[in-house]
What does this fold into?
Amino acid sequence: MADSLEFPVEEIPDADSVFMRAHKDHFRDGTLRHSVFRAQDGGMSVNWDKYCSKEETKQQAKIPAVNAVISLPVGGIRKIRDLNVKHTPEPRNRAHSEVNLPDNREDLTEVRVLLLRLADIVLAWGQS
Amino acid sequence: MQSPRKHVGVSGGYADHHREWYPRSSRLPHPKKRRKFDKEEFCVSRRSDNACSVGTIEGPEVPKRTIVEHFFERTGKWARQEEDRELKEAQEKEDRELKAEIARARKIPELTYGCDGEGSPAYSKDTLDRAIEFLAAHSEYLKKTCGLHLPAPNISPGPDGSIDIHWKRLCWELLVNIPADAAEMAVFYGDDYGQQKIKGSLDPTTLNLGVAAWLIH
It folds into this structure.
């Protein structure tokens, strides 16, 4: 618990962006699929671009070569239903943040469609 | 006594979109291109920019009006045949694409999905079969009631072992998610990138009229 308080929790401004890894299996013919947006342990892990670059985000993967990096604008995410982006720093990753995804499957389907429209691929998989 | 001219009163000339008659001798340029008929080039010569020639119709004393009617009867029939042929070809293409997509989707359960160790579940053949059943029900309905073919979607792995069926068109988008658990309902969301939205849950083994209507709007 003390470790999680190593970095202060900050408010992420709407103007900032977050990076997220996308495994190559979430692509088809070079196009990103909706399956990339899924919750793990209640939220979707992302990196705040204030403390992490797209290259660093890619390197955090177990196999970086098979992961792309996408960028999502925080303001855009917050405009979707009741989504929010919260800074949840970890001892080894100050940039770590979480997007809360809805539990309801109907809402989640809507959110996945709208999030994909916001996503911008900033680093393709296979590209370092 | 026989007339020195074989075709008495026969007219040759041009007709524009408004059925205005231009005698052949006048060689008047077409006043204005209009899309009264879909096949613009059919009514207007691309080379001379004149209305298309009707030619001379043999027969005694053919009133001018009759020649023009004859012209449009022929051209209209030809245009309709062309439109029917194009529509049929487009629909056959959609049908081929749908079958190809289903064949491609049958490989989803074999995917080594999430090989990065990020906890992605496996995909079952049963889930895929329900997704295909959903497509078959809607495809059959559209063919029988509207004579239309179901647009080919993208079938891809979804979250938690589910299957996503996704249509993305210029004017609308629809995502249907078939869950891994057969007891759960499928869910869907679609919009026209503006105000109109469609959202809800459905039984993937039966026809959903709302979704069917969205697929042809």
Notes: Residues 88 and 148 of chain B are 9 Å apart (CA to CA). The longest strand of chain B covers residues 163-168.
